[in-house]
Amino acid sequence: MASEGTATESTPSEPQARHVIYCGVCTLPPEYCEFGGTAKRCKEWLEKNHSDLHEKLYSEEAVAAVLSTLSVDAQKRAAKDSQKKEAKAAAAEAKAAETKAQAQVLIKRVERNKRKYVTAVSGLEAHGMDLKKVAKEWGKKFATGSSVTKTASGGEEVVVQGDNSDEIFDWVVDVAGVPEANVDCVEDKKKKAS
Question: What is the DSSP string of 40-69?
Answer without folding.
Answer: HHHHHHHHHH-HHHHHHHHSHHHHHHHHHT
